[in-house]
Fold this sequence. Notes:
Blueprint: E1 5-9, H1 14-25, E2 29-36, H2 41-57, E3 60-65, H3 67-83, H4 90-109, E4 114-116, E5 122-124, E6 127-129, E7 153-154, H5 163-173, H6 194-201, E8 209-213, E9 218-222, E10 245-250, E11 255-259, E12 265-276, E13 286-289, E14 297-304, E15 307-317, E16 324-328, E17 334-343
Parallel strand pairs: 1-2, 1-4, 2-3, 4-7, 8-11
Antiparallel strand pairs: 5-6, 8-9, 10-11, 12-15, 12-17, 13-14, 13-16, 14-15, 16-17
Helix pairs in contact: 1-2, 1-5, 3-4
Amino acid sequence: MKKDTIAIGMSGGVDSSVAAFLLKNEGYNIIGITMKLIDDQKTCDSIKDAKIVCDQIGITHHVIDLTKEFKNIVINNFIDSYKNGQTPNPCVVCNKYFKFGLFWEKAQELGATKIATGHYAKIENGKLKMANSIDKDQSYFLYGINKNMLNKILFPLSEYENKNEIRAIANKLGLKTKEKKDSQEICFIPDDNYISFLKENINERSINGDICLANGTVIGKHNGLINYTIGQRKGLGISYNKPLYVTEICKKENKIIVGNNDDLYKDTLIATNLNFLVDNIENNNIYVKIRSRAKLSKASISIENDKMTVKFTEKQRAITKGQSVVLYDKNLYCLGGGIIDQII
Length: 344
């Protein structure tokens, strides 16, 4: 047996199941931990699946109830962001505070010296890096973790190119989760209906307001800011002589600004809530993502008073407040990032 005791996050899905097996097969002492973040039937089913897999692999399984903390930190932040006209990314917050925060604290209490997850990302040369499969890569969602954690993290799936390889391993082992579908929706929102979720959880009436052109001309009415996002074209409820898109959500004036597709392209943003994973950044070799599935784009940055200005070489479409801007170098190492606060 290897000396390290690894605590692995067992979500009840196929990725974490196979990751746990791979580590056990390498000779590590493995502890399976499931964080209970939501109190619903789907979560209960996932906990049961995780327990069955741990039994199949031959590792211990622990459940940690963090539902109260998850609501206070992740869910409330999600609701507040939409109330302020932003479009948040709850996975970034969850990874920072839970999967690589509270999870590590609990893991140490159980005797773990490192932690592991089923994320598709790499730790290489002590740095966070994109996974081999760019399509599956999840490093974008991990930029917010503490850089001092990097030498305590393992990503067993980092070398795999596609999900078929993972399912093949699960099928060969007969794991309970071998046929389980990937979860694409936000975990705490039933049926992926975030509008309904927000209406139920925002303790203030959605206030109708104006839909305007950039010059101030009112061309319609909106039915609450939470129903709109940057780049949206469908469902605006307005008639015009050419296609219009949401270009800005103005909380203070309670209005939606619409314009042409060209109006969605901007070359500068300002980010706050910064977190960096390296000590030094070479400003002439920076590539940026403004959303998880966006292509890497060349940019330069400047940092002043805990704010980062990002200027792109080529304009980006539909930069959105509340989303994360994440930096990489030419070798695909993740340098850090922040939350988009202003678009210029």
